[in-house]
Amino acid sequence: MSRLVYGFNPESKEFNGVFEIGDTEILPENTTLTEPKASDGGQLMRPVTWNGSSWDGKTLAEFKADFNTGSEVTPEQTQASLVLQIAALQKSQETQAALNANLLLQIGQLQKAGN
Question: Are residues 48 and 79 in the same domain?
């Protein structure tokens, strides 16, 4: 038989993996039998750290709340942004094509002068 242990970095105490050990093996250093879960049994988001008796980290709801600005981006806004990006890329490509043509002309003139 075996059991799962949960490891953490000895300095930062940050979760660093799940390891399997035999039932009779001594608990390795910097590991615990306590599964890294929120107090409500839900998932913890990184960074997840060991405080000596339990795991600390943001719940999924807290994590999402940190990134919720209250305004959702609409598909129309996304499309408008992409159209502007495409226009900028096309302009950049046209500028690059003009520079390339100018460089080819200069190379031709230099080759002609060298002969």
Answer: no
Structure tokens, 103: 């460089």
Domain range enclosing 79: 73-115
The pLDDT tens digits for 61-102 are 888 888 776 667 788 888 988 999 999 899 999 999 999 999
Tens digit of pLDDT for each residue in 27-38? 999 999 999 998
Calculate the alpha carbon distances from 38 to 18, 41, 51, 52, 55 in Å. Answer: 17, 5, 13, 15, 8
User: Residues 43, 83: one domain?
Assistant: no
**Could you tell me if 62 and 98 lie in one domain?**
no
